[in-house]
Amino acid sequence: MTEKKSLPGDSKVRTKGLGTTPQTKPRWWRRPGLWLAILLGAPTAAIAVHGAIWYLATQQIIDQTTAQLRILGRQGWTTFADAPVRGGYPWVAEVHIPGIRIAGPLLGWETERLVIRLALFQPQTVRIAAEGKQAARLGAAPLLPFSATREEATIDLAAPEVLNLDIDGLQAALPAGPLTADTLRMRLDRAQLTLGLDVGNATLPGLPSGWPLGAKLDRLGLDVAVQAGLPANSTAPALKIWRDGGGRIDVPRLAIGWGAVKTAGQLRLSLDPLLQPNIDGQMRVGGFGALIDALVAGNLLAARQAPVMRAVLGMLARPADDTGPDSVDMPVSLRDRSLNVGRIPLLRVPEFVWPAGK
Predict the structure, then answer these.
(1) What is the arithmetic mean of pLDDT over 265-269?
(2) Cα 262 → chain centroid
(3) Tell me, what's the pLDDT at 20?
(4) What is the DSSP string of 136-178?
(5) How far is CA 145 from CA 98, 182, 198, 253, in A?
(6) Residue 237: enclosing H or E segment and its boundaries?
(7) Which residues have a Cβ under 8 Å from the Cβ of 19 and sit 6 or more positions away?
(8) Which residues neighbour 268 within 8 Å (Cβ) at sequence distance 6 or greater?
(9) pLDDT tens across 197-212, in order?
(10) Widest pairwise Cα distance in the chain
(11) What average pLDDT is seen over the chain?
(12) 238 by DSSP, 3-state: which?
């Protein structure tokens, strides 16, 4: 009698686990626990990475600021700043530097707080704002307080030697009276030693009473280039070395809008053997009639000379795009402390007495 063999599908065999497909482990991407861990851990990791980037950015600002202050110190500047404070998290790397002071041979400045900002989504542009009380000086003059409704400098890290400064609502207390300006725009290139300045709607102090052009300066624009580097300081020996080495200041652009008078021209400033300033230049003056009135009112031109000057300048006048239809070209010079326009001496400049130094 033949023995009956069980088929793979027989129920008796299945009860023993024979004839069934072996169970396999789910692939890794099908594991729900793994995805849950990723969903919970990814934000934490992203926050940690973002925090590290923010911290490194603020540390870079601190390191660069410290390095710049040390460079100024090696160049003869006096610098001071309190310990920096980080801020601006999460979208801005921000460093507050309290009590910063910078003093050099020709310029001094201090502010209650300097704030340096770097937006993490715009990492090529550094923004610097001065907050609180400020004071500045030129040369050996004392520090004078000033304020502004907005004051911000920007530096493009692709050209870090160039500083762009925007000031709105400037108010400064000078000994001769208040100085104000609605707008001030400055571009400083420390590598090339060039400066561009544009001022709008400024009020000037210390003008003679009855000055016919008024105290309101509508516009001032100038470009300055320093040749042969900067003098070591403002003492007579340092200025002599700078002068003998070819030191001078070129002003390739000088534009002034003052009431009815508009001027444009170029100047060159140097020092004579007595370390007194010399100026050579050419100016184009529009609205010369108002200028003649101003010179007469300021006792800089005799009233009897005014008609002759009007007639002569009227024959020389020509139209110009930047200074108007009645524009006249004339040389400007400063020699032996006498400021002259053409052959007319305008005023006597006081003598500059430089510190003797060591």
Answers:
(1) 97
(2) 26
(3) 55
(4) EEETTSPPEEEE-SEEEEEEETTSTTEEEEEEEEEEEEETTEE
(5) 17, 17, 21, 29
(6) helix 236-244
(7) 8, 9, 10, 13
(8) 248, 249, 250, 251, 279, 280, 281
(9) 999 999 999 877 767 7
(10) 155
(11) 87
(12) helix
**Cα 305 from chain centroid (whole Å):** 45
Give the alpha-carbon dihedral of 284, 290, 295, 296, to 10 degrees. Answer: 150
Phi, psi of 70 (to 5 degrees): -70, -40
Residue-level pLDDT at 22: 59
Which residues sit opposite 216 in a β-bridge?
Answer: 203
Structure tokens at 310: 């009007």
Contacts of 346 (CB under 8 A, 6+ apart): 295, 300, 339, 340
Is the separation of the CB atoms in 79 and 69 below 8 Å?
yes
Kindly state the tokens that stand for 38: 């990723």
Residue burial 249-272, b: 16+ Cβ < 10 Å; e: rest: bbbebbbbbbbbbbbbbbbebbbe
Is residue 93 a contact partner of residue 61, using CB atoms and an 8 Å limit? yes
pLDDT at 33 over 80: no
Nearest CA-CA partner of 341 in 270, 265, 273, 271? 265
pLDDT greater at residue 37 or residue 12: 37
Whole-number pLDDT of residue 109 = 94
Contact (Cβ atoms closer than 8 angstroms) between residue 278 and residue 287: no
Q: pLDDT tens for residues 34-53?
A: 566 666 667 778 788 889 99
Write the pLDDT tens digit of every residue in 178-198. 999 999 999 999 899 999 999
Q: Enumerate the β-bridge partners of residue 179.
A: 172
CB 142 within 8 A of CB 103: no
Residue 324 has a CB neighbour count (10 Å cut-off) of 17
Predicted pLDDT at 235? 86
DSSP, collapsed to helix, strand or coil, labels residue 46 as: helix
CA 143 to CA 108: how far, in whole Å? Answer: 7
Q: If you ran DSSP here, which 8-state letter would residue 274 be given? A: T
